[in-house]
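Format notes (please read before filing issues)

Several people have asked whether sequences and structure tokens are stored in separate files. They are not. Every record keeps both together, in the order shown below: the sequence lines, then the token lines. Line labels are part of the format and must not be stripped during preprocessing.
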Amino acid sequence: MSILAWIIVGLIAGFLAGRVMRGGGYGLVGDIIVGVVGGLIGGWLAESVLHIGKAVNGINVESILVAFVGAVILLVLLRALGAGRRGIFR
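Then the structure lines:
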């Protein structure tokens, strides 16, 4: 998959994950980064847990869905780690 395809899939997945998770968002660049890293996480989980080869393989619905799931997992982890620094009850 080309860099441009990773960026497009990452932007879409990061944007959707940010909206579903109801956060303040990370902006355009942040959404791309969250989506691309989410694609890596989702692709790794799809291959190792679900045994789906090449789950992220271009600009298509399957790739966006896998990257979206990975991005949601990433946002959950980031928020869980961030809550310890700010305090849970603030």
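For reference, the curators noted about this record: The CA atoms of residues 14 and 35 lie 4 Å apart. The chain has one domain: 3-83.
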